[in-house]
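Re: that backbone. C-alpha cells:
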C-alpha cells in the first residue's frame, strides 16, 4: 500500500526536476535586480534545488506525522556519499594537487605527436576522467573542471565550445570510473551484491568505457581544433599574481591526504576527521595554498543530501518498473531514467530485484553509467563540475536543456559500445 508521504515525495521530486530545468529563468530574473533579486538568485542555484524541496518534504512529514516521524526518516538515510563528495572536492581542489595534475597533463601532452594546444586539451578530457577509476569520479570531476575553468573557460562568451566540452566531460566522467569496482557510485552500490570485483569491471566494462572516452575526446578536440590552435580558446591561467611553485613535500602530503580520503570513502567519521586535519595542515602552510573550495563543496553536498532525502521514497514505483523490463529494454530505460534520477539510487533499487540474470544486471549498470552525463542530477559528481564551471557561462549558470543536447552525442557513442556483444549475450 502506497502511503501519502510516498506520493507527496514523488510529486516534490517531479517539481524539483522541473525546477532544475527552470534554473535559467530564475537566473535571468535575478540579473534584472529588484526587491526579490536575492530570492530569484537562490532559486537559480541548481545546487540548492533538491535541498530546498527536501526541506519542504521534511516540513510536510512534520505537519502530518509529527516531528519524531520526520526526524526518524532522516535518521534512516545514508548521507555518507554527500559528505564524501564534499570532502573529496575540498582536498582535490587544493593548489598542490592541481599543480601536480597540471604538470602530469603537460608532461603527457608533450609526448603526443600533435601540437601541444591540441594534445593538452585531449589529455584533460581523456586522462583525467579515466583517473576517476583510481581516485573516484567526484575527485576526477573536480580536477577536470578546475583545469578547464582556469585554462579554457575564463574568457567571456564562447558558450558553444563550453557546452560541447561540459557535455563530453560529464559523459566521460560517468563512464570513466567503471574500470574498478569502487570508484563509480552506481557500481559501488551493487558490486558486493552482484559479486563484481575490479577484474570483472575491467574486462566487462573497462575497455568499452575507455574506448568511448577516447573517441568522445578525440572528436571534441577535432571539432574545436581551429579555436585551440588560433588561441581564441587559450591557456589563460591566472598569471596576474605569479606565485612560487609548491614544495614537492607539500604536494606529497596533499596526495597522501587524497589517497587516505579515497580509502576511507565508506567511513564518514574517518574522512571527516581527515578533513579537519587537512584544513589544519593548509593553515600551517598558507604560502602553498589557494582558498579552499569550501562553499562549492558544501553546496554540492547539500544538493546530494536533498537527492538522498527525496530519492529514498521513490522505491514504490521505480523498483517495480525496473523488475518488469527485459534486459535490452532495461538498458535504454535505465539510460533514460538516470537523466531524472541519481544513477546510484537506480542501480541500488535494481539490486533489490530478485532472480535477475547476469545480462539483466549488466544492462542495468551499463545503462545507469551511460546516461550519467545527460543532466546535473544523473551522476553524483555532476553537481561538482556544475558548481565549478557555471560562472563561466553567459547567464552565470549552465542551462539543463543545452547540457542535455551537448551530452546526447557522446552518450550515444557510449550506448553503442556498451551494447556490443559480451559473454552474457
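Recovered sequence:
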Amino acid at each position: 500500500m502506497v502511503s501519502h508521504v510516498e506520493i507527496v515525495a514523488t510529486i516534490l521530486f517531479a517539481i524539483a526536476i522541473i525546477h532544475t530545468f527552470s534554473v535559467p529563468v530564475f537566473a535571468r530574473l535575478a540579473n534584472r535586480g529588484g526587491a526579490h533579486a536575492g530570492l530569484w538568485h537562490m532559486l537559480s542555484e541548481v545546487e540548492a534545488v533538491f535541498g530546498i524541496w527536501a526541506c519542504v518534504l521534511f516540513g510536510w512529514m512534520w505537519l502530518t506525522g509529527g516531528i519524531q516521524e520526520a526526524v526518524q526518516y532522516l535518521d534512516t538515510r545514508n548521507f555518507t556519499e554527500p559528505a564524501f563528495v564534499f570532502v573529496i572536492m575540498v582536498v582535490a581542489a587544493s593548489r598542490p594537487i592541481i599543480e601536480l595534475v597540471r604538470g602530469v597533463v603537460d608532461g603527457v601532452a608533450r609526448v603526443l605527436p600533435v601540437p601541444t594546444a591540441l594534445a593538452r586539451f585531449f589529455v584533460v578530457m581523456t586522462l583525467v576522467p579515466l583517473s576517476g577509476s583510481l581516485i573516484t569520479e567526484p575527485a576526477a570531476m573536480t580536477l577536470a573542471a578546475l583545469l578547464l575553468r582556469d585554462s579554457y573557460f575564463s574568457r567571456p562568451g564562447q558558450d558553444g565550445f563550453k557546452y560541447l566540452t561540459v557535455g563530453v566531460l560529464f559523459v566521460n566522467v560517468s563512464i570513466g570510473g567503471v574500470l574498478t569496482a569502487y570508484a563509480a557510485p552506481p557500481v559501488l552500490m551493487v558490486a558486493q551484491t552482484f559479486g563484481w570485483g575490479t577484474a570483472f569491471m575491467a574486462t566487462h566494462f573497462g575497455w568499452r568505457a575507455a574506448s568511448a572516452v577516447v573517441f568522445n575526446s578525440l572528436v571534441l578536440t577535432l571539432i574545436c581544433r581551429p579555436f585551440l590552435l588560433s588561441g581564441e580558446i587559450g591557456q589563460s591561467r591566472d598569471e596576474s599574481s605569479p606565485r612560487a611553485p609548491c614544495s614537492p613535500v607539500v604536494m606529497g602530503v596533499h596526495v597522501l591526504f587524497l589517497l587516505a580520503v579515497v580509502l576511507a570513502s565508506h567511513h564518514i567519521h574517518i574522512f571527516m576527521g581527515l578533513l579537519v586535519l587537512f584544513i589544519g595542515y593548509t593553515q600551517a602552510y598558507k604560502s602553498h595554498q589557494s582558498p579552499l573550495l569550501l562553499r562549492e563543496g558544501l553546496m554540492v553536498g547539500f544538493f546530494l543530501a536533498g537527492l538522498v532525502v527525496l530519492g529514498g521514497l521513490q522505491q514504490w514505483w521505480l523498483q517495480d518498473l525496473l523488475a518488469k523490463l527485459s534486459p535490452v529494454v532495461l538498458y535504454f530505460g535505465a539510460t533514460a531514467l538516470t537523466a531524472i534520477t541519481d544513477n546510484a539510487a537506480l542501480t541500488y533499487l535494481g539490486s533489490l530485484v530478485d532472480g535477475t540474470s547476469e545480462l539483466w544486471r549488466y544492462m542495468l549498470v551499463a545503462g545507469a553509467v551511460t546516461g550519467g552525463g545527460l543532466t546535473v542530477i544523473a551522476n553524483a559528481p555532476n553537481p561538482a563540475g556544475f558548481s565549478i564551471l557555471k560562472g563561466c557561462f553567459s547567464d552565470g549558470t549552465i542551462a539543463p536543456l543545452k547540457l542535455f543536447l551537448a551530452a546526447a552525442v557522446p552518450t550515444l557513442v557510449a550506448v553503442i559500445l556498451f551494447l556490443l556483444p559480451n559473454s552474457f549475450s
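The chain has two domains: 4-75, 80-418. Residues 80-418 form one domain.
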